[in-house]
Amino acid sequence: MAGVTPPIRDRFGSKFGIIAAAAGSAVGLGNIWKFPYEVGNNGGGAFLVLYLVFVFLIGVPVMISELAIGRNGQKNAIGSFKAISPKRPWFLVGVIGIGAAFMIFAFYGSVAGWTLEYIFQSVKNGFAGKTPDQLSSMFDNFVANPFRPLMWQAIFVVLTASVVMAGVKNGIEKYTKILMPVLLVIILILIVRSVTLPGAGAGLNFLFKPDFSKINGSVILSALGQAFFSLSLGMGTMITYGSYIRKNDNLGVTAVQVSVADTVIAVLAGIAIFPAVFAFGINPSKGEGLVFVTIPNIFQQMTGGYFFSLLFFILLAVAALTSTISLLEVIVAYFSEEYKISRKKATIYSSVVILFIGALCTLSNGGILANFKILGLNIWGLLEYTSADILLPLGGFFIVVFVGFFMGRKRVKEELTNAGSLKGKLIPVAMFLIRFIVPIGIALVFLNAIGLLKFG
Ligand code: PHE
Question: What domain range is 313 assigned to?
């Protein structure tokens, strides 16, 4: 029977540990620097409704499927498919996942490194007295510097590696259990500051006021891509973490809790950021401009800004770290299990490869590779687009098809009911979503985005 547990397999020790690790993976730069801007710019409340529908009708079923594959297979993202369905090509879904993990860590680690530079700048009060133009060129000069961003990126990878190397329970669980509450407290402090600024209401308007005319095919695709990216789905993170979940923990409940936590934190991040942006009469910019130029600009005009900017960049770094930990774990679990090498060696080797690809991303953002473009995108943009918008939804598609039709009813039921000990009244609903709604939904969004179908 598959699902036999090797005696020494490391696992999460508590319910809170599972949630902290999985929500830690989900909550990241995607929530804080991407989500708020996407909402504000793509129709506010209208985008939010669309996003919520994707999270609960598509994200949650995909997450349940991944957790079930991992816990049933008791292996990494590739090994679990092989254990459940030997001699079938399903493990290729895991192969794409491991590839996506390298790609995401490479470009994500680049930005994660910037957060460390900005913590450093906050500490030495480096934003004080600078005009918006000066802050903007400060950022441009920093990313174009051939050395500094690489140094911070390397430090970030080493930080991630040292947690992963310590293991699932004594590394990942131990640190995410501390870091996630810290993150929540920081966001709440920032919200109190932001919404009590005079003129904060305009920011809330920007975030929540629905404008359905903004919704079109590409907005729908980016809402779906954002849901996958933000929930860390479609590439094996949740398969890998699922394999460390104890047999008596409820997978459905875990998936819902993690998805709710991720969504709540994304919305809270928007409430922390936009009221402040509007209170200072600044135009909301996107992505890196928002986080590394606009925000320092706000803080340096605000009473107590020194303290708040430090908190904000620590928040970003913590959010990024608990996500890169999960990306590295996907890779390390695979190499250590399938090639029978130690966790330590697997961590070191993969980190070196990640740093190499990551350096290419970093240098493409204003450094010596800035003019190297493929399909109009630099290396950073190319990796981001392919992994987040294409590989993740595609991976999610195959994952639900596998669970819905090929994994075998018995195994699926065993995982969803904990071998019969849970009532599982909602299982038929989950199965219906997994088998029909999710694959059809993903397919429609894709067809619509490439123009083969027109709706919205
Ligand atoms: N979910 C993370 C974020 O929102 C990014 C991530 C994607 C992490 C995929 C792991 C796997 O920032």
Answer: 15-449
Pocket test for ligand 1, best of 323, 384, 387 (most atoms within 8 A of CB): 323
Specify the pTM: 0.94
Q: How far is CA 226 from CA 243, 263, 325, in A?
A: 25, 11, 20
Q: What is the pLDDT of residues 411-423, one digit of tens each?
A: 999 999 999 999 8
Q: How many domains does the chain have?
A: 1
pLDDT band for position 380 (cuts 50, 70, 90)? confident
Q: Is residue 225 part of a domain?
A: yes
Best residue for ligand 1 mutational test, from 35, 105, 108 (most atoms within 8 Å of Cβ): 108
Q: Which atom of ligand 1 is nearest to the CA of 327?
A: 10
Q: State how far the Cα of 434 lies from the Cα of 280, in Å rounded to an integer.
A: 46
Contact 78, 95 (CB under 8 A): yes
State the angle between helix axes of 409-417 and 251-279 in degrees (0 to 180), rounded to the nearest 10: 70
Closest-lying ligand 1 atom to the alpha carbon of residue 231: 1
CATH number for position 424: 1.20.1740.10
Distance 83 CA to ligand 1 centre (A): 26
